[in-house]
Design goal:
With 66 residues, the chain is mostly helical. It has one domain. The protein has four helices and two strands, in the order E-E-H-H-H-H. Strand 1 (9-10) and strand 2 (13-14) form a beta hairpin. The longest helix has 13 residues, at 15-27. It is globular, with a radius of gyration of 11 Å.
Length: 66
Amino acid sequence: MRGDAMADELYGVTKKAWKDYEYIRQGARINMNSSYVHALAGITREQHGAILKHYSEMAEKWKDTP
């Protein structure tokens, strides 16, 4: 499901889930395609897959949010 431009959710991924994923991505030296990344970030497998698939769009949407 795709959220609208003002929503804090996109493709089933919340802004918080995105930030949690980004925290792991920026601080860790692991392959972000690994099956255990979702556990490290505290997100679901579905959210992890959506982030991988729509990373650029989410990065653009939430890049400057605290």
